[in-house]
Write a sequence for this structure.
């Protein structure tokens, strides 16, 4: 991956979504909360994979 800016942006957005879900979990309906939590877990997992992949590619 040559575009590190998009990797950084994706990582920041994924962690921001997870943080917002944690902070506002009382105000989100339960069914929607479950779906958003699943999406956040997938995005954070993908961001970890992309970070590791880009670090391995840089070396």
């Amino acid at each position: 991956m040559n575009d590190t800016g998009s990797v950084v942006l994706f990582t920041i957005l994924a962690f921001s979504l997870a943080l917002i879900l944690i902070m506002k979990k009382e105000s989100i309906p339960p069914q929607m909360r479950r779906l958003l939590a699943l999406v956040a877990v997938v995005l954070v997992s993908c961001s970890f994979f992309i970070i590791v992949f880009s670090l391995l590619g840089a070396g």
Notes: The chain is about 85% helix and 0% strand. The mean pLDDT is 90. The two ends are 12 Å apart (CA to CA). The chain has one domain: 4-58.
